[in-house]
Specification:
heterodimer; A: 481 residues; alpha+beta; Peroxisomal Thiolase, Chain A, domain 1; OB fold (Dihydrolipoamide Acetyltransferase, E2P); 9-stranded mixed beta sheet; 13 helices; B: 398 residues; alpha/beta; 2 domains; 11 strands; globular
C-alpha cells in the first residue's frame, strides 16, 4: 500500500482583510471587493521558507534520515536556476543521498509532484518522499488577483509503511489554457477575462478530471466522503461540486475567505484540512486546477488515529494576526520601494564559498555536541566551549532547528534597519543546552518576556540586491499555537 | 609568575583633540592635532621617538589599513610602526603596545596614537559593517547594532535583580545625568549640556530599554601618548605619570555558547580587573582607586562595570549610583571628563582619551573638573559586545 504517511501545513501568521486592500486601492477598481481575508507571508518569508515550515510540521517526530526524496512544487520559487528543493533539503538537514526536484510553472504542479512521489514509491525506487508545495504570488496593486492570492504551504510524506491515506488512483488532464501567466520578465501575474476563465477553464477542467477519475475507478458520488478542489470564484466552486452530484457536506471547505488562493499549495492545504477531520475508510478525491487538472483518489486508513500532534491547517488557521495596513503588505512584498536609510543599504557581498562550506550550520542550524562532556554548542566547534572540558575534535553533529528554546534576553532595536521595525533580537537558550543570538519575528516587542518559550523558524535573512541572492537563516518566534 | 610592568614605563606627554562632529577635519588631520599637543607636552623632538603604535578600528571610514597612514602623516623617519585593532578597546591596545615595547627594553621612547573618523558614513551610529564579526558569523548573527547588544544587558539586568523597566531606567538615567554634568565642564567634550532625569527617561527609545541619552556620542577625534622608560622620565618633566598595570582579557566563547553566563555582567572585566589590581598592588579598589574613566558606551555598561570592577557589590550598584558615590564630588568620581557619553567615542582614540583625563587629573591640570589629590586612576576600555569582547583595565599613578 502506497500513500500519505504524514502531513503538515503552514499558514503565515499575518492576514490582511480584503476590505483593507479595497480601502487603499478600491478607488481604482470599484468592482474589485471580495469577501474575507487572505494569508500574507511576513517580509522575511517566501515560498521556500514556508515550504520548510510545512515540512518541519510534517516531519515532527519522524526520523529525517529515512527520507530519500524531496520534491518542491511552486510557481514562485526564489531561484530559476539553483535548485530550490536542494535549499529546502539542506535547511531540513537531510542527508545528501536524497533525490530532489523542483516542480514549477503550473498551479497543478503540487498534485504533479504528489503523483510523481507516488509513482516513485510504487515503483520501489524510493521509500519515503516528501512533497512540499508552496506559493507566494503577486497580483498587480489594485487588481482582483491581489485580493485573490494568498500565501501558504503544505507538505505530504509519501511512503509504503504506516500509510494514513492510501492513493488508490489518479487521472490527469493537460490543456494549454492560458488564463494566468507570468513570463520571465514579470513580477506580477497577468490574466485573461474572468468570465472566460470561469466558464471555459475553471468550471470545466476540475469537473472533467473528477468525473474521469470516478469513471476510471467506477465510483459514484455517494462513495466519496469529501471532494477537495481549489476555489477561484466562490459561486463557481459550489457549482462544480453540485454539477458532479455531490452534496454540500461532501465538498471540503475551500478556505478562500480565510487564506486566499495559495497556488500550487492550495489543493494540498485543503486536503490537509480534510485529513484532519477524516476517519478510517473515508474516500477523498483531490483535484488541482491549472493548465488542466490532476485528480487523485485517496482512502483513509485506521492509521489516521495515530497521527501525532501537528499544527496542520486547523491550528495555523486559529493562530493569526491582522496585518492592518495595506502599505505594510506592499512593503513586505518589495512592491513599494521604501527608504531603507543609509544603514539599510549596507549589505555586504554574499560569498557563495562560505554558504557552501558552512551549509550545515548556516542553512541547517546544526551545531555540535561534545562526545566527552555532552555540551551542545553552536556554531559547531573543534575545541569544546565548555571551559571544564576543552576536548578537541570529539564532536557529533547536533541539530538545533527542531529544539525549543527560552528567550534569555532581548531588545527591540530602532537603529538597525528592518522592514518591520523595531528589529527584535535576543539570546536563546535551547532546551538540552546550547545558546545563540537570533533575530525574532512574528511578535511584538511588548509581548516578549525574559524566559518565554520560543521555537526556530527558517526565514530570509537578507536580500542581496547587488547580486540577486536570497540569503536564508533561522529566526526565533514565539511558539505558534 | 611574570613580574609585570609596574613602574617600568612613564607617560611624559599626551594630546587629545576636541571630540565631536569634526566635519572639516580628516582622520589624518586629527592625528596631527593630537600628536602636536603630545610632543609639545612631552617637550621632546620627533626624532627621539623610536617606535610608534597606531590604533584605528573602522579603517573603511578612516585612514585605511596598517600603520603607514600614521608614519606618513606624521613623517616618522623609518621607525618601527604597527597598527593595532581590538574593536572599541583599540586605543588602549595602541598604548599597551607602546608601553610593552618600552618595558621590554626594545625602545626608550615610544608613541601611541588612536584615531577614528565616524562621521563620514552618512547615517547615525557606528558604521554598519556586518562582516566585522567574521564573514561566516555574519550570516548567523542577528540584524544588530551596538545599542541593541547592550540593551539586552539592560533587559537581563532588570529581570535578574527585580527592577521594573521604570526603576531600571531611572537608575541608568542617574548615571547619564552625572556624566552630562562633567561633560558640560569640559571644553574638549562632544556633548556639553546638562540634562535632567526626566529628559533622559523620556527620550526616544533607540533599543529597548535604552533611550537616546543612554547611548554615548558618536564622534570624530584622536588622542596620543608619548611613553618612556620610567628611570629617564624625570629628565623630560617633573610630573610624569607611571603605569602601574595594563591588563586585557578576551572572551573565551563560554559566554556566547554555554548557558552559564548571565548577560547581566561582562565576564572579561572581572578577569582583567583582578589581574590589573594584582599587578598594581591594589588590595581594596573601592578605597584605593581615586578616580576612573570606564567604558560607558551605554549607561547599562557603566552600571555593570561598577560591579565587575569590584567597586560595588553584585546587584547593588544602584545604591552607590543613587548615593552619588561616582559623582565628581563623590568618593570615587567616575567619568570626570564626561566619559564616552559626553566626551564622545571615536573608537580608536577612546582608550587614549580616558588615559588623557587620568594623566591631567594626576598632574592637577583638570581645571574645574579637578579631583582632590588623586593617587591612582583607572581606565576601563571595552571592545565588542557583552557576549564576545575584549576588556582592558589600566591603572596609573604618581
Amino acid at each position: 500500500m502506497v500513500g500519505i504517511t504524514a502531513y503538515g501545513a503552514y499558514v503565515p501568521l499575518y492576514r490582511i482583510q480584503r476590505m483593507t486592500i479595497y480601502q487603499a486601492l478600491g478607488w481604482l477598481n470599484p468592482a474589485s471587493l471580495l469577501p474575507g481575508e487572505k494569508a500574507v507571508a511576513n517580509y522575511d518569508e517566501d515560498s521556500l521558507t514556508m515550504a520548510v515550515a510545512a515540512a518541519v510540521d510534517c516531519l515532527n517526530g519522524l526520523e529525517r534520515d529515512k527520507l530519500d526524496g524531496l520534491f518542491f512544487a511552486s510557481t514562485t520559487t526564489p531561484y530559476k536556476e539553483r535548485q530550490n528543493a536542494g535549499i529546502i533539503a539542506t535547511a531540513l538537514d537531510l542527508r545528501p543521498e536524497v533525490r530532489t526536484s523542483d516542480f514549477a510553472t503550473s498551479l497543478k504542479s503540487g498534485t504533479g509532484a504528489l503523483i510523481s512521489a507516488y509513482d516513485a514509491v510504487s515503483s520501489g525506487s524510493a521509500k519515503n518522499v516528501l512533497v512540499c508545495a508552496s506559493d507566494c504570488r503577486l497580483g498587480k496593486p489594485g487588481g482582483y488577483q491581489e485580493e485573490i492570492y494568498g500565501d501558504g504551504a503544505a507538505a505530504l510524506l509519501l511512503g509504503d509503511k504506516d500509510v494514513i491515506a492510501s492513493i488508490e488512483g489518479t487521472y490527469s488532464l493537460s490543456y494549454d489554457f492560458s488564463d494566468n501567466w507570468r513570463s520571465d520578465e514579470d513580477k506580477f501575474n497577468r490574466t485573461w477575462e474572468d468570465r472566460w476563465i470561469r466558464d471555459e477553464g475553471y468550471g470545466k477542467f476540475i469537473a472533467e478530471a473528477i468525473s474521469g477519475l470516478m469513471k476510471k475507478y467506477a465510483l459514484k458520488p455517494q462513495d466519496i466522503a469529501k471532494v477537495v478542489y481549489p476555489c477561484l470564484y466562490i459561486g463557481a466552486h459550489a457549482g462544480i461540486g453540485k454539477n458532479l452530484g455531490f452534496e454540500r457536506n461532501q465538498i471540503q471547505d475551500h478556505l478562500f475567505t480565510a487564506i486566499g488562493n495559495t497556488g500550487t499549495a492550495y489543493p494540498l492545504m485543503i486536503l490537509v484540512a480534510a485529513l484532519e477531520e477524516a476517519k478510517a475508510g473515508d474516500k477523498i478525491i483531490v483535484a488541482s486546477y491549472g493548465n488542466g487538472s490532476d485528480a487523485m483518489l485517496l482512502e483513509v486508513t485506521k492509521n489516521i488515529k495515530k497521527v501525532k500532534d501537528r499544527r496542520g491547517m486547523k491550528k495555523h488557521l486559529d493562530s493569526k494576526k491582522d496585518l492592518g495596513l495595506y502599505e505594510k503588505y506592499v512593503t513586505f512584498r518589495e512592491v513599494l520601494p521604501i527608504d531603507t536609510g543609509g544603514r539599510g543599504e549596507e549589505v555586504g557581498p554574499t560569498q557563495m564559498t562560505i554558504l557552501w562550506r558552512e551549509r550545515k550550520w548556516l542553512l541547517g542550524l546544526c551545531g555540535s555536541k561534545c562526545k566527552r562532556c555532552g555540551t551542545p554548542q553552536y556554531p559547531p566547534q573543534e575545541i569544546c566551549a565548555n571551559p571544564k572540558c576543552g576536548a578537541v575534535n570529539e564532536m557529533d553533529d547536533y541539530r538545533f532547528s527542531d529544539k525549543k528554546g527560552h528567550l534569555f534576553t532581548y531588545t527591540g532595536d530602532i537603529l538597525a534597519f528592518s522592514p518591520g521595525p523595531p528589529a527584535i533580537y535576543g539570546m536563546v537558550d535551547f532546551e538540552g543546552g546550547g545558546r545563540w543570538m537570533f533575530d525574532l519575528n512574528d511578535c511584538e516587542l511588548d509581548s516578549l518576556k525574559v524566559g518565554m518559550p520560543v521555537e526556530m523558524s527558517f526565514r530570509r535573512k537578507f536580500h542581496d540586491l547587488a547580486r540577486h541572492l536570497y540569503v536564508y537563516f533561522w529566526k526565533a518566534t514565539p511558539i505558534r499555537a | 609568575m611574570a613580574e609585570g610592568i609596574k613602574d617600568k614605563v612613564a607617560i611624559i606627554g599626551m594630546g587629545c583633540t576636541k571630540f565631536g562632529e569634526r566635519w572639516d577635519k580628516s582622520a589624518n588631520k586629527l592625528m596631527v592635532e593630537a600628536f602636536l599637543e603630545a610632543i609639545e607636552d612631552a617637550g621632546i623632538e620627533k626624532k627621539a621617538i623610536q617606535a610608534a603604535w597606531s590604533g584605528t578600528c573602522y579603517e573603511e571610514t578612516s585612514v585605511g589599513k596598517s600603520a603607514i597612514p600614521l608614519s606618513i602623516t606624521l613623517k616618522l623617519p623609518f621607525i618601527p610602526a604597527t597598527r593595532v585593532e581590538n574593536f572599541c578597546a583599540t586605543g588602549s591596545e595602541a598604548l599597551r603596545g607602546a608601553c610593552y615595547g618600552v618595558a621590554s627594553g626594545a625602545f626608550d621612547i615610544a608613541l601611541a596614537v588612536g584615531v577614528e573618523k565616524l562621521k563620514d558614513t552618512g547615517y547615525g551610529g557606528l558604521p554598519q559593517t556586518d562582516s566585522q564579526v567574521g564573514t561566516s558569523y555574519r550570516f548567523a548573527f542577528p540584524n544588530y547594532t551596538p545599542p541593541g547588544m547592550f540593551a539586552m544587558m539592560g533587559t537581563r539586568y532588570f529581570a535578574q535583580y527585580g527592577l521594573t523597566p521604570q526603576e531600571g531606567k531611572h537608575v541608568l538615567a542617574r548615571i547619564t545625568v552625572k556624566s552630562h554634568h562633567n561633560g558640560a565642564l569640559n571644553p574638549k567634550a562632544h556633548l556639553r549640556r546638562e540634562v535632567t532625569i526626566e529628559e533622559v527617561v523620556n527620550a526616544p527609545i533607540v533599543a529597548w530599554p535604552l533611550g537616546l541619552f543612554d547611548c554615548c556620542g558618536v564622534s570624530d577625534g584622536a588622542a596620543a601618548a608619548i611613553v618612556c622608560r620610567a628611570d629617564i622620565a624625570k629628565k623630560f618633566r617633573p610630573d610624569p605619570i607611571y603605569v602601574k598595570s595594563l591588563q586585557i582579557a578576551a572572551s573565551s566563547g563560554e559566554e556566547m555558547m554555554c548557558c552559564e553566563w548571565d548577560y547581566a555582567h561582562v565576564e572579561t572585566t572581572v578577569h582583567a580587573a583582578k589581574r590589573a589590581y594584582k599587578e598594581a598592588g591594589i588590595k581594596d579598589p573601592r578605597k584605593e582607586i581615586s578616580m576612573m574613566e570606564v567604558h560607558d558606551c551605554f549607561s547599562i555598561t557603566e552600571l555593570t562595570i561598577y560591579e565587575d570592577l569590584g567597586i560595588s557589590p553584585r546587584g547593588k550598584a544602584k545604591e552607590d549610583i543613587e548615593a552619588g558615590f561616582f559623582d565628581l564630588d563623590g568618593k570615587l568620581p567616575c567619568q570626570p571628563d564626561g566619559g564616552l557619553k559626553c566626551f564622545g567615542h571615536p573608537i580608536g582614540a577612546s582608550g587614549l582619551r580616558m588615559m588623557y583625563e587620568m594623566y591631567k587629573q594626576l598632574q592637577g591640570k583638570a581645571g574645574p573638573r579637578q579631583i582632590k589629590n588623586p593617587k591612582f586612576g583607572l581606565t576601563h576600555n571595552m571592545g565588542g559586545i557583552p557576549p564576545m569582547n575584549v576588556v582592558s583595565v589600566s591603572i596609573v599613578g604618581l
